UniProtKB/TrEMBL annotation, chain A:
Occurrences of domain ATP-grasp (ranges): 48-303
GO aspect biological process, one term: SOS response
Single GO cellular component term: cytoplasm
Keyword Nucleotide-binding on entry: yes
Pfam families from the UniProt entry: ATPgrasp_ST
PROSITE patterns, sorted: ATP_GRASP
GO molecular function: ATP binding; metal ion binding; ribosomal S6-glutamic acid ligase activity
Organism field: Oceanospirillum sediminis
Keywords linked to the UniProt accession: ATP-binding, Ligase, Manganese, Nucleotide-binding
Name of the protein in its database record: Alpha-L-glutamate ligase-like protein
Entry annotated with the keyword Cell membrane: no
Record PANTHER family: BETA-CITRYLGLUTAMATE SYNTHASE B-RELATED (PTHR21621:SF0), RIBOSOMAL PROTEIN S6 MODIFICATION PROTEIN (PTHR21621)
Automatic annotation (TrEMBL), chain B:
Pfam family, one: Transglut_i_TM
Name recorded for this polypeptide: Inactive transglutaminase family protein
Spans traversing the lipid bilayer: 6-24, 312-331, 337-367, 379-404, 410-427, 439-457, 469-489
Species the sequence originates in: Oceanospirillum sediminis
Record keywords, A-Z: Membrane, Transmembrane, Transmembrane helix
Domain 7 transmembrane helices usually fused to an inactive transglutaminase: 257-500
Keyword Membrane among UniProt keywords: yes
Length: 326, 504
């Protein structure tokens, strides 16, 4: 690639409406996200309570352990359950999340089949409380949640991990979505920079439009070999409405909502992110800016007033439809 | 766009004010834009400190005079409530402060400015009395005579004689020299030996001139009277080097009586120094002009504080480079302004020593930190443990470097230890979460940034401009404000998002 081609890149990116980090920080996060409301999304317990108040569905909360004295109560909380999840309220990047799929007479088992003792569970909770997994090592609280029973229709698209769906919501309008599928390379984690596959989803239909791993296009899941163009999320409308309702909950103008699909309860909000990354553009093969501008011009014209969640989702599905590139 | 008007107005005002201030300074104070067209001047400040006993106090300090290589331009003194007089006693200039009563800690400042001047007109005061040969006690006298005989054999004139003596002092196997140096300072021994040859010599206090240094002590140097040339010749008693040194300033005529405090105890004198560039025509004008009392610039501060500002004024340049690299290029660094602090340390340690030291400390720190993470400690305790290991590492490295003979290794102590500990902590967390590659990316990014900032901070032109034109700080501020509004792509994003340009 010659120097001349490199010089043309900014021009081409601009014509594609690709948003850069500076523009995201300056023109969207800085302008639309009120810093006072960040704690609502940085603390998963606050997010959960907020979502429950608003009637949005979230993984059920079994209990909260707030200080070391309460660690003993853990065994009482989990005695009647077969599977559950222990996670830190302020963990970042999936750190400190312990998933137990079933238990037999005081013996606990992780998804990989490895056994964990009751003592190790208590120790894990102590570590969470001490701030081992939180940003900056702040003291934290441990959440005990019901296990998500993952919808099996999407199971073949993920390797050793739960795929989640990231929807970027701008001023209440879902603007772009992708599914993050863990791979062997990403070690069961759903972070794109660690090697997870990002599958861009059509806002209108919930169908795959494009897929990338390490920023390069892929057509098949590298481990399960599933054909990614057949990926179709069911109950898409309900999922978008759940994502869009995060605007009313948090009043943050530009957020990323992470949603999982439960077999029985449908889409659930896993967490919210006030600084969603830009990789979603690569996964979708298109830029965010044209869609963001469209929402901004709608708001400037005042037509958004009186739009309900369903109305906003309908607007997005009508205007942001694209055809598959796979 | 209209809501941005106040912002652009502010930037414009800052730019205009900054440029106007700089032009004013250039025109009115005739400070040149580049460091080249100037003459160097040294501002040296003596700081006298003592504890007064409550009685009348009299402080007498030897004052420096014009000497080979340096012309004294002016001198001034600052103290609280002291009367200041300059006296001349047997060819020696003295500064005297006195007060009727003083209590507790006392501080007196004396400032002198010297023009670097190879053609300085030096007043010569020959030795006051004839030389009386020094007589050592029995055993040492024999040693002294032996040393002199050996030196005489190997020398042709006074200069080579002194050099031969110094060579013998430096020879660790020479028992005669060892015997003399056992009870005498090297410089005193030299003067005594020369007196036995009838050569007049004296020990004078001297200052090593290093730009921006504070709390420097005086060093003893030897001056020898050359009867034929009718001049005093400077000798370094350690290296044996003869003749004036452009980086050595003589402060008076007697090392022993540099400072004399009556009515106080625990007296101490230390020196700060600063190199300044003044235009050649101003340099001559300065010789007759008195100190400008209405000079409200950094340059009116005591030299010690000015030396500090010389570094402080460079930090905005470092910040500008960091802002540029992060917003326009997209370099990842560990800790936003850590590279600037590392660069400040590099200025003290020199670049190569600095980089080697930095890599050594951080990598060893990471190893130790990985062990600490097995111990499962709370954050504050963990960081404190890292700080202590960093301090221990720095001490061990300094000792090893010194033993191996790498004197440069000692400057490793200039590294900001707390910042390094945080860097190690952050990199270690990064390693656990995102792998070694990300550590290399961010560590490398920090190092590259630090080297670039170091390059700017040590550049003569940058140093000259930032220190002499305070108005430029406003220009830098305006540039940073403008960069804070840049919403275009970063250079690294062109690579990252390139697949999107190929999709259609």
């Amino acid at each position: 690639m010659g120097i001349l081609d490199w010089l043309k890149i900014p021009q081409r990116l601009r014509s594609q409406g690709v948003m850069g980090m500076n523009q995201r920080n300056h023109s969207y996060i800085g302008r639309y996200n009120d810093r006072r409301r960040y704690p609502l999304v940085d603390d998963k317990l606050k997010t959960k309570l907020l979502a429950q108040q608003a009637g949005a569905s979230v993984p059920g909360l079994i209990g909260v352990i707030r200080h070391q004295g309460q660690v003993r109560q853990l065994s009482k909380m989990i005695s009647a359950l077969s599977g559950f999840v222990i996670k830190p309220a302020q963990g970042s990047g999936g750190k400190g999340i312990l998933v137990i799929t079933h238990q037999e007479q005081g013996r606990f088992f992780k998804p990989s089949g490895a056994e964990v003792s009751a003592y190790e569970l208590e120790r894990h909770v102590s570590n969470i409380l001490a701030g081992l997994f939180s940003l900056g090592g702040k003291n934290d609280v441990a959440l005990i949640e019901h296990l998500i029973e993952f919808d099996e229709q999407l199971a073949c698209f993920s390797y050793e991990g739960v795929p989640d769906i990231r929807v970027v919501v701008f001023q209440g309008f879902p603007v772009m979505a992708m599914m993050r599928c863990s791979t062997a390379a990403s070690d069961g984690k759903a972070n794109l920079h660690q090697g997870a596959v990002g599958v861009g989803l059509d806002i209108a239909s919930g169908q795959a439009v494009n897929a990338v791993q390490f920023d390069r296009q892929v057509c098949y899941h590298p481990d399960t070999q599933a054909d990614l163009k057949t990926l179709q999320v069911s109950g898409w409308g309900a999922l978008l409405e759940l994502a869009a309702s995060a605007w009313e909950m948090t009043e943050l103008g530009y957020i990323g909502t992470d949603i999982v699909l439960d077999k029985q309860h449908g889409p659930m909000i896993l967490e919210l992110n006030a600084r969603p990354g830009l990789a979603i553009q690569i996964a979708n093969g298109c830029g965010l800016l044209p869609r963001l501008k469209q929402v901004e011009s709608l708001i400037d014209s005042g037509q958004h007033q009186g739009l309900t969640v369903a109305g906003r989702v309908a607007f997005s599905r009508e205007h942001f439809a694209v055809s598959s590139m796979l | 766009m209209s809501r941005r008007v106040p912002f652009y107005l502010l930037t414009l005002i800052l730019l205009a004010a900054g440029i106007a201030l700089s032009i004013y300074r250039h025109d009115v104070y005739s400070v040149p834009w580049t460091p080249g067209e100037t003459r160097e001047q040294w501002v040296v400040e003596a700081r006298i400190k003592f504890i007064a006993k409550g009685d009348p106090v009299s402080v007498v300090m030897q004052a420096p005079d014009t000497q080979p290589g340096f012309t004294l331009i002016d001198e001034s003194a600052a103290s609280q409530g002291y009367g200041f007089t300059r006296i001349e006693q047997q060819g020696q200039r003295l500064a005297q402060w006195s007060v009727r009563e003083a209590q507790d800690h006392q501080l007196i400042y004396y400032k002198a400015r010297f023009l670097v001047d190879p053609g300085a007109q030096v007043p010569v005061t020959p030795p006051l009395q004839a030389v009386t040969p020094h007589i050592f006690e029995h055993q040492r006298q024999t040693a002294a005579v032996a040393l002199l005989e050996e030196a005489s054999r190997r020398s042709a004139d006074t200069v080579t004689l002194v050099r031969a003596l110094v060579t013998q002092f430096n020879d660790e196997g020479n028992q005669n020299a060892a015997l003399l140096l056992n009870s005498l300072n090297r410089e005193d021994a030299l003067v005594s030996l020369l007196s036995m040859k009838g050569i007049a010599a004296r020990v004078v206090p001297a200052l090593k001139l290093k730009d921006g240094r504070r709390r420097q002590p005086v060093l003893p140097m030897v001056e020898i009277w050359q009867e034929q040339e009718r001049q005093w010749l400077l000798f370094d008693p350690v290296s044996g080097r003869a003749g004036p040194d452009e980086r050595l300033l003589i402060w008076g005529q007697s090392y022993q009586s540099l400072l004399d405090v009556v009515g106080g105890r625990d007296s101490d004198i230390s020196f700060s120094m600063l190199a300044q560039d003044i235009p050649a025509r101003q340099a001559t004008w300065e010789k007759v002009q008195a100190e400008d009392l209405l000079n409200f610039s950094i340059h009116s501060l005591p030299v010690e504080e000015q030396a500090m500002f010389k570094t402080i004024m460079l930090i905005p340049v470092g910040a500008l480079i960091v802002v540029f690299l992060r917003i326009l290029v997209g370099i990842k660094t560990s800790g936003t302004f850590m590279p600037v602090l590392i660069a400040v340390a590099f200025v003290q340690t020199q670049l190569v020593t600095g980089i080697v030291g930095f890599i050594l400390i951080v990598s060893t720190g990471l190893l130790i930190r990985s062990y600490l993470s097995h111990l499962n400690l709370l954050l504050v305790a963990r960081i404190s443990a890292v700080i202590i290991t960093v301090i221990l590492m720095i001490s061990v490295m300094a000792v090893i470097a010194f033993r191996v003979g790498l004197v440069e290794g000692l400057s490793i102590t200039f590294f900001p230890m707390i910042i390094l500990s945080w860097t190690i902590e952050r990199m270690s967390v990064l390693w656990e979460e995102d792998g070694a590659k990300e550590v290399l990316v961010q560590g490398g990014g920090s190092l590259v940034t630090a080297v670039l900032v170091y390059g700017a901070m040590t550049d003569e032109l940058v140093r000259h401009l930032t220190f002499n034109f305070v108005g430029l700080q406003l220009v830098i501020l305006a540039l940073i404000l403008l960069l804070g509004n840049y919403t275009g792509y970063r250079l690294t994003e062109l690579r990252r998002f390139r697949p999107l340009t190929e999709s259609d």
